[in-house]
Amino acid sequence: MISGWIGRTGSLLALLLVPLLASAGQSCEDAALSPDTLRKAMAAAQKVTAEMDKRQDNVALLGRVGQDLSSYGLKYSHAGFIYRSAPGAPWRIAHLLNSCGTAQSDLWYEGVGNFFLDDMFAFNSVLVIPPKPIAERLLPRLQDAAALRAVHDADYSLVAYPFSTRYQNSNSWVLETLATVEARDVKIVNREQAQSWLKLVGYQPSEMKVGTFKRLGGRVFKASVAFDDHPNELRFSDRIRTVTVDSLMQFLADRKEGWEVVEIPAPR
Question: Where is the secretion signal located (predicted)?
Answer without folding.
Answer: 1-24
